[in-house]
Amino acid sequence: MTKETSLEDRFQHYVDAENKIEPKDWMPEKYRKTLIRQISQHGHSEVVGMLPEANWLTRAPSLRRKVALLAKVQDEAGHGLYLYSAAETLGADRMDMVKDLLSGKAKYSSIFNYPTPSWADMGAIGWLVDGAAIANQVMLCRTSYGPYARAMVKICKEESFHQRQGYEIMISLANGTPTQRKMAQDALNRWWWPSLMMFGPTDDLSPNSAQSMKWKIKRKSNDELRQEFIDKTVPQAEYLGLSIPDKDLKWNEETKHYEHGEIEWTEFYDVIKGNGKCNKQRLIARNKAHDNGEWIREAANAYAKKQSERKKHQAA
Amino acid sequence: MSDKDNWKIWEVFIRSRNGLSHKHVGSLHAPDEEMAIKNARDVYTRRSEGISIWVCPSESITASSPDESEPLFTPADDKVYRHPTFYEIPDEIGHM
């Protein structure tokens, strides 16, 4: 047995015993790389995730809705920060991650490449997209890498408000005028399938999942999480009096789960490839925001320099 | 005593077990970072309180000023909409 394999064995035993890995512990290089990729992509998703909702900040229908949405978008920025920091504990460089996002090299969740043409989309995103994210993130609170798990605990605490504000919007619209009901149904129709795709390909077509499960980075499979989400969400749609756009959806009394229709995976891969409705728009907006922020980063540096010179001067 | 006057104060953070973050436990004096770790081991982990120690010079810590706590922290007090309970979810829906 080589030294490397025995270290890997020890690592596996350690993880199997439900211990957490911390930054200075030995870890297989592939564990580190997998985590850097996953955590940075997760961080990018939080950052890009601000864009579809930012679209409605200035047009929210009331002050109540506006402050809620602002607070939510603020939270997403914070979540991006927690995640980038967790990736930095593995040796990733913050500027490299940002550069990879801006150049289009890095991936982020495809759900954010869908447009938000109506106010009802703010309700559907909070309810469905955050709902799906919560299912995934609750699982990740128990991931084997300590800093990632702790970031997830913080994020999950904040996500609850996100989903509730979304569902509250859906309740208002579903109980509103016929036009408002139509808006709510239309948003559900557009967000349902992409939300199911958020969990990733089916288990038999998810090649990296097995290793991630073995290392306990993931604790549930894509299909398990998707099922959990569907079972939880269908009754919520029924309460709203809205219908899920899946004619094959039915309750299975034996398994106590909902069965769902075929997911259009060609659409999923197409959006990943860059052909979604908003892929280009999102990257342009992100780059513009980054460039427009240049002056404030420069100003912060100039101010810090001035302060330190002043201190030196006073000390002299 | 004059030698000891040059010793820096170090803040000590202990991780009690993997999975939890390092938590501030106190401070001590030491001539350099290695001694600070050794002293922290002796002072703060005598009863197996930890499995990892961080030390950093106290002077590297910048703290907010108590005089400023009002302008710093009160703006959050009236933002109830940042809390989940601000949103009305019917009981039938259960936990969300």
Task: Provide an overview of this structure.
- The complex is a heterodimer of chains A (316) and B (96).
- By secondary structure, chain A is mainly α.
- Chain A has helices at residues 3-16, 29-48, 50-57, 63-88, 94-103, 120-140, 146-174, 178-197, 209-214, 222-240, 265-275, 279-292, 294-315, and strands at 250-252, 257-259.
- Chain A has a two-stranded antiparallel sheet.
- In chain A, helix 4 (63-88) runs antiparallel to helix 7, helix 6 (120-140) runs parallel beside helix 8 (178-197) and helix 7 (146-174) packs antiparallel against helix 8 (178-197).
- Chain A is globular.
- By secondary structure, chain B is of the alpha+beta class.
- In chain B, strand 1 (8-15) and strand 2 form a beta hairpin.
- The termini of chain B are far apart.
- At the A-B interface, helix 4, helix 7 and helix 10 of A face loops of B.
Give the helix/strand layout.
The complex is a heterodimer of chains A (316) and B (96).
Chain A: H1 3-16, H2 29-48, H3 50-57, H4 63-88, H5 94-103, H6 120-140, H7 146-174, H8 178-197, H9 209-214, H10 222-240, E1 250-252, E2 257-259, H11 265-275, H12 279-292, H13 294-315
Antiparallel strand pairs in A: 1-2
Helix pairs in contact in A: 2-4, 3-4, 4-7, 6-7, 6-8, 6-10, 7-8
Chain B: E1 8-15, E2 23-30, H1 33-44, E3 52-57, H2 69-73
Antiparallel strand pairs in B: 1-2, 1-3
Biggest interface goes to: A-B, 25 and 19 residues
Q: Tell me the series of helices and strands of chain A, N- to C-terminal.
A: HHHHHHHHHHEEHHH
Strand adjacency order, main sheet of chain B: 2-1-3
Corresponding CATH architecture of chain B: Roll
Mean pLDDT of chain B: 90
Compute the separation of the termini of chain A in Å.
Answer: 63 Å
Number of helices of chain B: 2
Strand sequence of the main sheet of chain A, in spatial order?
1-2
Q: CATH H level of chain B: which superfamily?
A: Phenylacetic acid degradation B
Shape of chain A: globular
Give the strand tally of chain A. Answer: 2
Under CATH, the topology of chain B can be stated as: Ubiquitin-like (UB roll)
CATH class of chain B, anyone? Alpha Beta
Q: Give the biggest beta sheet of chain B.
A: 3 strands, antiparallel
How much of the sequence lies in strands of chain A comes to under 5%
Estimate nothing, just give the exact number of structural domains of chain B: 1
Estimated share of beta-strand residues of chain B: 15-25%
The best one-word shape of chain B is elongated
Q: Major sheet of chain A: size, sense and barrel closure?
A: 2 strands, antiparallel
The residue fraction in helices of chain A comes out at 55-70%
Q: State the low-pLDDT regions of chain A, or none.
A: none
